[in-house]
Structure formats: structure tokens, C-alpha cells
Write a structure and sequence with these properties.
Elements (H helix, E strand, L loop, with lengths): L1 H9 L5 H6 L6 H28 L1 H32 L6 H8 L6 H33 L3 H49 L3 H8 L10 E3 L6 E3 L1 H9 L9 H9 L6 H30 L11 H9 L2 H39 L5 H22 L7 H25 L5 H20 L13 H18 L5 H12 L3
Antiparallel strand pairs: 1-2
Helix pairs in contact: 1-7, 3-4, 3-6, 3-7, 3-10, 3-11, 3-13, 3-15, 4-9, 4-10, 4-11, 4-18, 5-6, 6-7, 6-13, 6-14, 6-15, 6-16, 7-11, 7-12, 7-13, 7-14, 8-11, 11-12, 12-13, 13-14, 15-16, 15-17, 16-17
Length: 486
């Protein structure tokens, strides 16, 4: 079906603007559902339930709370203003375009730097989608992890290359609906099969601290450890990531009009809250129902194992396709955003400034294939943790682009050099903190999003204040956004 939709929309993608942004034609339902489906990915059906299954309620609960708050704040404070600003600012169709146009960066420095960061972190993110596909088919049918990962990658690449943004957004809407249905069925069915809520609670009381939201349980020893302030803050900090997620921000840019944002916000929040509550509870109920049979990376198969036990094979196939839907909805978004950044912003911006629209689209399609190949090789290890890989890429995007997006939309005094300093400071801090500083333990073990986001904010403010004020033209454009109702 995905390939068919891709072919249908192939004929509608007549320009790079259509291919990358769908001509700004998304309605409130598809805009909201595609944003959330592309956001959550296989992480929602595998990573989050697996975390709850292995370590208890604590970290999973606070992560879900942080994500719910972050989702709301992103729709509330970023969506409408970004939709208006990107159109007013020379009709920007990608995030690097917006950064360049917002600050009138004629040298295209912001465009190039942001495109490179998108490439690096989206390769990691795309790899998590391929890992989820491999684990899905290996867990259900016992098929070779590597081979099935390759097959899934080929399908995702095929419809993304053919149809572009409109095909991807329409498919995301369908897949988001399937994800929602799958979560509800497994949650209700799992509770019944486990003997009801009372039986689940009685079973889990035997595991010290499993239901305590202020700590985590060691999966191997069943010993309880307090999360402490650092642990809770790190989980809640996931919410900061939303402000810098290119594949989500792109949906805001593509909605028909800013007036439809309020309706999209309601749709998105209902979907997110119910879905995340269900995902966490599935992990908790799964521990009561399955016991501790899933160890290490296999804990992320709790949704799969419960589904197979709960329903007949045909129904299980439909439900488990929800995992495939979740994975594909994010992977296609990531591939498209990466291809737009490299072809439209890096290739045309630096290498061939006179490249035709048709040439840009073919470079974009080639980029999708190349990025998918690199991500495939990164995902070859079947022991890779979906949750941990996503957390790294999430911190990367949130810290590199989040502060830049927020201040560029709300602070007139921000300058191009401030934006550049924020990007570099945020992205580099994530990598350095994750690879080196976090190993010191203690307070340094906090989620790299927190220090990196803070460092980026400080860098933007300090460098902007030391810099010359933005031109009168840039400031006038900023003021026009506030007054606009497009």
C-alpha cells in the first residue's frame, strides 16, 4: 500500500517545494497525526514498553510526562509562529532554509552547518528504525535479523524516493491510526489475560520498587535504586527535544494556515497522551504477565510477545504491523528531511547554485538511498537498544536546533552569529558530554540534553548581545510575523 501511495503522489510532486513540503497543503488531521506518528516511531511500541518492563515505572513514567509536556509546548509556542515566519521569510521550505532566510545569511553558513548536523544525527535516528524492523520480524517469525532489516529499509526508501512529503504524510496518518489501535488492543487484552488490574498489582508488589515512580529496578538483580533529582530531571528533559526536531517542525511549516493549528493541537495531544500511557502500562503489565523471561535488549520485544500470546495469528499480524507502521512513519520523515537539507541546502547552496529544480529532486532521492545505506550498516548489531539510540539523536537535535528555533521566533535581537554559536555549542556539547563527561558519573551522568540545551542558550544570548544589532529589514520582518494571520 505504501508503494502505491508513493506512486500516486509522485505525479503531484512537480517541484522541490511540493516534494519537500507538500505545497503547504496539510489539513489539521493529517498535520497532527503525521507529526506525532513520525515523532514516536518504533520507540513508542518497543523502546518505551521495553524500558518499563525492564526497569519499572520510574524512568518510563517521567520520560512520558516530559514528552507530553514538550509536545504541548511545541504546538502551543512554536507551530503557528514557525508556520507564518517560514512563509514570510522568503517562503522557506526546509529548516536550514529558514535559518538562512531568517538572518539574511548571504554566505549560507547557517544553512550549511545545520544541514551537516541534520545528516549526522538523522543517520543515527534512521538506524533505530531499521533496528526496530529487524527485531520485529526476528521476534515474530524467527527470520534473520539482518535480512529483514534490509527488506524493510528497501520498502521505506522506495516510497520516500517516489512520492516525497505528501506521500509520507498521508502514510503517516494511516500508520498513526494503526499504532493507536494496536496500543489500545494490547493494553486491554494484556490486562484481561494477566487476571485484571488487581492481579497485576499483586504480582508486581513482589518486585521491590517496580511501581515506584521515583526509582528504577535492576533487571538482573531486581534491586531498587532511587532516580534522584538527576534521574528525574534527565527523563523530563526529553520534552526539550521537541523544539529542535526537524521532521516534526516540518509538519508545522506544511499546515495549510496557522489558523488550523489549534485544532491540530487538540488532535495531537489526545493521541500522544493516550498512546504514551498505553505504552508504559503495556510494559508494566507485560512484566506481570510474562515474568522476567526477556533479558537485556530482548526486553524491547515485550509488545511483540504479548501480542502473539493474546490474539489469533491474523489479528496479531494486524496489531504487530503497528510496530512496522511506527518505524516506517519516522524513518521516512527522517530520510526526507535529510535529503532536503543535503540537496536543497548543501548541494545547491554551496556546490551548484544554478542547479535546476529537477536536478535537486534527483540529488534528494540519491541522498535518501545513501543515508539509508549508512544507517543500515550502523544498525547491523541486533543487540542495539532502540531507546538509547533514540535518546542520543533526540538530544542532538533538541540541543542543536531547539534554542535556535525558540529564540529566532521570539527574540528580535538575536543575530546570525548568535544562531551559529548556539548550533555549534549545542551539537558539540551533546557529543562531548555523551562520549566523555557522562562517564564521570554522579551529576555528570545526567541526560546530555540538559547541559547542551543550556550551553546553546547561553551561547546564543552572549554572542548576539556582543554582536551588532540585526538590520532594520530583519527587525521589520520579525514584527510582521507577529501581526500576520496567514
Amino acid at each position: 500500500m505504501d508503494i502505491v501511495i508513493g506512486i500516486v503522489y509522485y505525479h503531484r510532486s512537480r517541484s522541490s517545494r511540493d516534494y519537500f513540503l507538500g505545497g503547504r497543503s496539510l489539513g489539521p488531521w493529517i498535520g497532527a497525526m503525521s507529526a506525532e506518528a513520525s515523532d514516536m516511531s518504533g520507540w513508542l511500541l518497543m523502546g518505551l514498553p521495553g524500558l518499563a518492563y525492564a526497569t519499572g515505572m520510574g524512568e518510563a513514567f517521567w520520560t512520558a510526562v516530559g514528552l507530553a509536556i514538550g509536545t504541548y509546548l511545541n504546538w502551543k509556542f512554536v507551530a503557528a509562529r514557525l508556520r507564518k515566519y517560514t512563509q514570510i521569510s522568503n517562503d522557506s521550505i526546509t529548516l536550514p532554509d529558514f535559518f538562512s532566510n531568517r538572518f539574511h545569511d548571504e554566505k549560507k553558513v547557517l544553512m550549511s552547518v545545520s544541514a551537516l548536523f541534520i545528516l549526522v544525527f538523522f543517520i543515527i535516528y534512521t538506524a533505530t528504525g531499521f533496528v526496530a524492523c529487524g527485531k520485529l520480524f526476528n521476534g515474530i517469525f524467527g527470520l534473520d535479523y539482518t535480512f529483514m532489516m534490509l527488506v524493510s529499509a528497501i520498502i521505506i526508501v522506495a516510497y520516500t524516493v517516489i512520492g516525497g512529503f505528501l506521500a509520507e504524510s498521508t502514510i503517516d496518518f494511516i500508520q498513526g491510526s494503526l499504532m493507536f489501535f494496536s496500543l489500545i488492543v494490547v493494553l486491554v487484552g494484556g490486562t484481561i489475560m494477566a487476571g485484571g488490574v488487581g492481579a497485576v498489582m499483586d504480582n508486581l508488589e513482589g518486585i521491590d520498587g517496580f511501581l515506584n515512580i521515583f526509582g528504577v529496578v535492576n533487571a538482573e538483580t531486581n534491586s531498587f535504586t532511587s532516580l534522584g533529582f538527576v534521574g528525574i530531571a534527565s527523563a523530563l528533559a526529553w520534552g526539550l527535544g521537541y523544539f529542535g526536531m526537524p521532521h516534526i517542525l516540518l509538519r508545522f511549516m506544511a499546515i495549510r494556515t496557522s489558523k488550523e493549528i489549534k485544532r491540530s493541537t487538540v488532535i495531537a495531544m489526545v493521541w500522544v497522551v493516550i498512546s504514551m500511557v498505553a505504552a508504559v502500562l503495556i510494559g508494566i503489565i507485560g512484566r506481570a504477565y510474562l515474568g522476567d523471561i526477556l533479558i537485556g535488549p530482548d526486553s524491547e520485544k515485550v509488545f511483540i510477545n504479548m501480542t502473539i500470546d493474546l490474539v489469533p495469528a491474523f489479528i496479531a499480524g494486524i496489531i504487530l504491523s503497528g510496530i512496522l507502521a511506527a518505524t516506517m512513519s519516522t524513518a521516512d520523515s527522517q530520510l526526507l528531511v535529510t535529503s532536503s537539507a543535503i540537496s536543497g541546502n548543501f548541494y545547491k547552496g554551496l556546490i551548484r547554485k544554478n542547479a535546476s529544480d529537477k536536478e535537486i529532486m534527483w540529488v534528494a532521492r540519491l541522498t535518501v538511498i545513501v543515508v539509508a545505506i549508512i544507517a543500515y550498516f550502523m544498525a547491523l548489531d541486533p543487540n542495539s537498544s532502540i531507546f538509547r539510540l533514540v535518546s542520543y539523536a533526540w538530544a542532538g537535535f533538541g540541543s542543536t536546533f531547539g534554542p535556535v528555533i525558540l529564540l529566532s521566533l521570539y527574540w528580535k535581537r538575536m543575530t546570525r552569529n548568535g544562531a551559529l554559536a548556539g548550533m555549534l555549542a549545542g551539537g558539540i556539547t551533546v557529543i562531548v558530554w555523551k562520549q566523555f563527561i557522562s562517564k564521570l558519573g554522579g551529576i555528570f551522568a545526567m541526560y546530555e540534553m540538559i547541559p547542551a540545551f543550556a550551553v546553546s542558550l547561553v551561547a546564543i544570548v552572549v554572542v548576539s548581545l556582543l554582536d551588532e544589532e540585526p538590520s532594520a529589514e530583519i527587525q521589520a520582518e520579525f514584527d510582521s510575523v507577529i501581526k500576520s494571520d496567514i
